[in-house]
Amino acid sequence: MKVWVPCDAAAVACGADEVAAALASAAGLRGEEVEIVRNGTRGMIWLEPLVEIERDGVRHGFGPMTPEDVPALFEDGDHPKALGPVEEIPFFAKQTRLTFARCGRTDPLSLADYEADEGWQGLKRALELGGAQTIEEVTTSGLRGRGGAGFPTGIKWKTVAGADAPQKYIVCNADEGDSGSFADRMLMEGDPFCLIEGMAIAGLAVGATKGFIYIRSEYPHAIRTLNAAIKAARAAGIIGDSLMGQGPAFDLEVRVGAGAYICGEETSLLNSLEGKRGMVRAKPPLPALEGAFGRPTVVNNVLSLAAVPWILVHGGAAYAEFGLGRSRGTIPIQIAGNVKHGGLFETGFGMSLGTLVNEIGGGTASGRPFKAVQVGGPLGAYHGPDDFDLPVCYEAFADQGGLVGHAGFVVHDDSADMLALARYAMEFCAIESCGKCTPCRIGAVRGIETLDRVAAGDPAAIELLHELCEVMEKGSLCAMGGFTPYPVRSAIRLFPQEFSLSQEAAE
Amino acid sequence: MTEDDRLAAILADHAGREGALLPILHDVQAAYGCVPADCYQPIADALRLSRAEVAGVVSFYHDFRDAPAGKHVIKLCRAEACQSMGGAEMIARLERALGMKVGETKGDVTLEAVYCLGLCACAPAAMVGDQLVGRATPERIEALVAEVSA
Ligand SMILES: Cc1cc2nc3c(=O)[nH]c(=O)nc-3n(C[C@H](O)[C@H](O)[C@H](O)COP(=O)(O)O)c2cc1C
Ligand code: SF4
Ligand code: FES
Q1: DSSP 3-state assignment of A134?
Q2: Could you say which DSSP state residue A126 is in?
Q3: Taking the CB of residue B109, how many other CB atoms lie within 10 A of it?
Q4: What is the 8-class DSSP label of residue A352?
Q5: Helices (H) and strands (E) in chain B, counts
């Protein structure tokens, strides 16, 4: 019998290790041969731990499993946690999985699994095409940075490729600090070779021989998995002195952050990588020209890099066929918070917000009425049912005073206290500000105080808050201070009564 | 090994590494449980930095401590997705049960805030030592602490 039990941190947090242990001991007691594979997660987190058993070549799912549910797996008859063929579960079947195609199917650290499932084919194609043609494919794909800003990846690579320097770097931004975001972690734990392949292709394309993966310290599982994967890829001769024994050198190193949200901002990240305080640098110079250690550097998010192998195998044009307007390809959406079906849902850009919350997410977990969804992390705006027609794409959200960001969607039910959430947004900014500029460093603290005055019923405070938001938005050097007003203002606009305002006063 | 040998060994481990300060500080904290102030000067000397630069980096990052934490570190997620699932109430109840506040160390236990563990789809989330807890309840966290203390 072949059984899969995820080793993803979310599955483990919900008891996957205990379930795996119960499976091993139950099998031992019965003298049954059971092969337990620790796969990544399918992303259906509400079903974790999700155990899969192969029957006649089809993987059947059971979940959410507890150790007590294990013995019944060995008995005839229906299992109370049986879900049927796992890839037919609607949440899974409705997706377009390009970047996450392998995640949950394979053993993340098995080179054999990876190779058997299209692994290294993109790198092989890049080695045939050469750097310039590889960049051309990425440009054709329309891929834009998945880390938040949505900058075209092909253009960034071209700038670095065109820079003349004795050393260039690829830096993978795996700082993923947004609440509601876990796709980077899921990919690094569930399919680390895919990220390694994407970085190797990037290195080849721009002429960089060294790559760093900067991972936040809050992700010890991802750090362990990636280190093991890098070691295995190096031992297999895929990276190291030469890419697959025929290309230029490219090696990788994992660097661990130290608990600072701002180090997700690319210039802070570079400072941190260099061993400095994670302070934001003014641009220009662009990191593409003066990045890590002053050298031309590609800084890309995990998902941007992990999208590249598929693009090389299937062609940039095939990737660009998915999506909407100038948002091409697929977006791994993370649905979280107070929602029935929380997890990762990869789909072409364009799905409406309402479909996402109600159909895919299945409504609130508490069963209480939906209130608001925050999109794009702690700096993203809150959206109410009036925005349910909004298609998920960069432009539509920007037009509504919001952002897609890293595509984290955090759902709140009607018990959410919007004044408290607005206050939290300011508090988070105050805690995580790098301190370089006044509007953010001081403004966030004043924001907390002003919201406390609003809470105390001071009628003059709301006006002051709006002015403060204006100053923070216009005067901050980076999006930390610049976008903190988004959740605050959107909360006031959507729920003026919670800020002791009438509807008109909020407009 | 004496204390100084431990530091010297860490510094030797990272000799020649580009941008070695953070990896060094992580190793120092792993060895000593914190980054003691009397390490600043030797680290600065090894990396040809000033003592103030090292001190500035240590103080910038949330991870680095100036005194060792309790034997059991409980990290509680305060971010939005966890709040949406009653995270704040959960933290308050745990604080009452343990008779201490987030940010404090009492006896063996240190309570800390963390801003997202990437477990937002199984919120609220916590970390007890290196054990992750999804769909966390105060009871489960207390039970875990009791288990590891036993
Ligand atoms: C406050 C702040 C936090 C950020 N956090 C992240 C992050 O955690 N991960 C990420 O990839 N990008 C983050 N970014 C965006 C990066 O600065 C940068 O745009 C991105 O890493 C570029 O990669 P991409 O083009 O592949 O998206 C953040 C930006 C700001 C202003
Ligand atoms: S906005 Fe805030 S985080 Fe960004 S540079 Fe200014 S102080 Fe630093
Ligand atoms: S918000 Fe708590 S784990 Fe992400």
Answers
A1: helix
A2: H
A3: 19
A4: B
A5: 7, 5
pTM score of the predicted model: 0.97
- Helix (H) or strand (E) run with residue A35 in it: strand A35-37
> Which residue from A318, A127, A110 is spatially nearest to A225, judged by alpha carbons?
A110
Distance from Cα A234 to the centre of ligand 1, integer Å: 28
Residue of A178, A261, A337 lying closest to B123 (CB–CB): A337
Extract the runs of DSSP E, i.e. beta strands, from A90-208: 169-174
Name the residue among B61, B83, B122 with its Cβ closest to that of A13. B122
Residue tagged 């063996």 (tokens): B108
- Residue A138 CA to ligand 3 center (angstroms) comes to 33
Q: Regarding beta strands A370-375 and A408-413, do their DSSP bridges make them parallel or antiparallel, or are they unpaired?
A: antiparallel
For B81-139, where are the E strands, in sequence order? 105-106, 109-114, 126-128, 131-133
pLDDT in tens, A252-291: 999 999 999 999 999 999 999 999 999 999 999 999 999 9
The residue behind tokens 């004043």 is A446
Residue A170 has pLDDT above 90, yes or no: yes
Give the C-alpha separation, A138 to A320, whole Å: 10
Instruction: Report the gap between the CA of A192 and the closest CA in chain B (Å).
Output: 17
CB contact under 8 A, A337 and B21: no
Contact assessment for residue A92 and residue A105, using Cβ atoms and an 8 Å cutoff: no
> A306-352, pLDDT tens digit by residue?
999 999 999 999 999 999 999 999 999 999 999 999 999 999 999 99
CA proximity to A160, closest of A171, A146, A150, A144: A171
Is residue A62 within 8 Å of A81, Cβ to Cβ?
A: yes
pLDDT given for residue A503 in this prediction? 47
Looking at the DSSP bridge assignments, the partners of residue A352 are A391
Distance linking the first and last C-alpha atoms of chain A: 63
- If one counts every other C-beta atom within 10 angstroms of the C-beta of residue A293, the result is 14
φ/ψ (deg, to 5) at A48: -75, 145
